[in-house]
Amino acid sequence: MNKNQSHLIESMSIQIPDTIIQATRMTEQEILQELAIALFQKEKLTLGQAAQLASVSQAEMMRLLAARAIPLHYDELSFEQDLQTLRSFK
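Above: the chain's sequence. Below: its structure in token form.
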């Protein structure tokens, strides 16, 4: 990635077959929350990133994690990443 591309926001679209969606009996929002929780638990996302993916506040994300007894892993790197995420909303 060059210097000019570093300011671009990239996204990924994922297609889930209707049969899978029907089998889960979940809404799109619920699927995104499950994905965010799983990626947070595997330490692939910070709390802020997981909340963003799940389209919830960080406080709500903490409640979702607490309901499953998933501990927060919040270190200095996570804090810096959350600050960067917050700055991107300006």
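Residues 59 and 77 are 19 Å apart (CA to CA).
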